[in-house]
Amino acid sequence: MAGMIEVHNLSKTFATKDADVEALQNINLSIQEGDIYGIIGMSGAGKSTLVRCLNFLERPTAGTVEIEGKDLSTLSEKELRAKRAEIAMIFQHFNLLMQKNVIDNICFPLLYGGVGKKDGGRRGTMSKKDARKRAQELLEIVGMTEKAEAYPAQLSGGQKQRVAIARALAANPKILLCDEATSALDPQTTQSILQLLKQINREYGITIVIITHEMSVVREICSHVAIIGGGHLVEQGKVADVFSHPKTKEAKELIVKGRGEERRTLEGHQKDLMKGKCCIRIVFSVNSSFEPVIANMVLKFGQPINILRADTKNVEGIARGEMILSLPDDVQMQKDMKAYLMERGLAVEEVDGYVD
Amino acid sequence: MWTSETALMMWVGVKETLMMTVLSTIFGYLLGLPMGIALAVTDVDGIKPNAIVYKVLDVIANIVRSIPFLILLMLLMPVTKVIVGKSYGTTATIVPLTIAAAPFIGRMIESSINEVDRGVIEAAQSMGASTMMIIVRVMLVEARTSILVGVTIALGTILGYSAMAGIVGGGGLGDIAMRYGYYRYEADIMIVAVVLLVVLVQIFQTLGMRMSVKLDRRKR
Question: How far is CA A166 from CA A32, A51, B100, B127, in A?
Fold first, then answer.
């Protein structure tokens, strides 16, 4: 089945004075209608360029981008602008008009964007009054009705992103591209924005593409994920699969170690103490949050284990997340413990080099 | 020597100076605004890069700006005569003042627009806004404060230029200061004329800055 977004053999090269920089090479993606598709990679991996290729803010050097079966490169400039109205975008730094209040910002795509411009004219076909009415509805959806007359400078980061989301939804897009939309927000605000995106996906069936460097964002709301490293697409699939069984080095790095800056190096003597320890990574996905899995295991085997890293949370009664454990030295014990964890429905995987 | 006649002369001088300055600024913006927009838009990093258009405007702006105003005034006399019908007097001075101000205004507009956050422009592009809509509804709106500061600077600078117009009988306070102070050694009249010029600049500056601050929505 042809997807909502089909990317074939896409490459993008930037010509600079000294040399050509290949930002993206041979990317193939298929994003289905209704997906929440995460594209994750370290900074500089080319993910921002990729998302800009999806609405042709950047023209690919080679390859094609098809939206609902329509190859964007075949469109005239006018047709492309009309198409862009169907592909909304939100940004890390919100990119609101600072000199316009909230309601005028939301009206912008309706009045001056690419919607309904059949005559190729300079305005959308919507009247100012209708646009304001629509903007009010959107403010309700994002929970910002009382801030209609405020200016962006008077809003917090989370509020600004809500306004940006309302603006993005104004023209009834089919696709919403999110370029690091939560990277400038604190964890709590990130959560609320992600929940809002999820709700939008569910209620309006909008296909969402999320660019991020945070695995937690992907884990939280994405159905599918693609991992970009050094301009290549190194791995893609369902989030659950990629997350439980990462195949490539880049994927493991992103998943096991979290974001780059979280990496820790231990002091010399600590390193020696940890050397040769058997470390495993376990992924929670089906366990009840009310079942103390680790504690039960410790009680059962009567042996202490060391939790090196834990990142779990309760999502609707199910424990989700991951831990990295250091097991006792006894090989038989290690086997038994792994078997015990697997019995409990956890994905278990040996990690070497967690301590390095 | 302070008669009602002198006072009347001063009053006429103020009116002439204001007329020259304000009209030249308005005409200057009629030429300079499109020029500045074109410079910003066709720049390599602009939304519609066009190396040829940019270079042509760039060179024109630099040439006109490097010619001393007094020389430009002389050079443009035939042009002024065609446009106004005569090459001397207050009205005639508006032509060289406008020509001198336009590229300078264009540069200020260019720099004001270049200050606009690229991200906001990108957001408008992502919504399918046309180049024209981005210029009118994003660039000029977001650069409003900076453009108004530019208008204030332009008024002050053009007022300064207008004083030189006395050379060709342009009238205004500068003319009075020159005629009485420089040619007839009547320093008191010269001082009064200069003080009036300073007051005018001060008024423009204060009003302009107040307006630009008042219209800026970026404050909390």
Answer: 23, 20, 46, 13
pLDDT tens track for A144-167? 999 999 999 999 999 999 999 999
Per-residue pLDDT, averaged over A331-340, amounts to 86
Between chain A and chain B, how many beta carbons pairs sit less than 8 Å apart? Answer: 89
A240 Cβ neighbours under 8 A, 6+ residues apart: A285
Q: Which sequence spans correspond to the domains of chain A?
A: 5-256, 264-350
CATH code of the domain occupying A264-350: 3.30.70.260
- Asked if B130 lies within 8 A of A115 by C-beta distance, the reply is no
Identify the CATH number of the domain defined by range B18-170: 1.10.3720.10
Check if A175 contacts B (Cβ < 8 Å): no
Strand-pairing partners, residue B213, are none
Can you give the residue ranges of every domain in chain B?
A: 18-170
Report the first-to-last Cα separation within chain B, whole angstroms. 56
Q: What ipTM was assigned to the predicted interfaces of this complex? A: 0.87
B214 reaches A (C-beta below 8 A): no
Q: Please identify among residues 127-146 of chain B the ones whose CB lies closer than 8 Å to any CB of chain A.
A: 127-130, 132-133, 137-138, 141-142, 144-145
SS3 A55: coil
This prediction has a pTM of 0.82
**Under the phi-then-psi rule, with left for phi > 0, alpha for psi from -120 to 50, and beta for the rest, what region is A36?**
beta
Residue type, A322: E
Q: Let me know: does A254 contact A227? Beta carbons within 8 Å.
A: yes
Each residue's pLDDT tens digit, A198-240? 999 999 999 999 999 888 889 889 999 999 988 899 999 998 8
Inter-residue contact B6 to B192 (CB < 8 Å): no
What is the C-alpha to C-alpha distance for residues B216 and B200, in angstroms, rounded to an integer?
24
| CA pair distance A208, A186, nearest whole angstrom | 21
| Residue corresponding to tokens 């996906």 | A201
Q: How many CB atoms lie within 10 A of CB A24?
A: 27
* CA B201 – CA B163 distance, rounded (Å): 12
Phi-psi region of A69 (alpha: psi -120 to 50; beta: other; left: phi over 0): left
Q: Does domain A5-256 have CATH number 3.40.50.300?
A: yes
From first CA to last CA, the distance across chain A in angstroms is 45
The residue behind tokens 């800026």 is: B216
**Res. A289 pLDDT band, cuts 50 70 90:** low
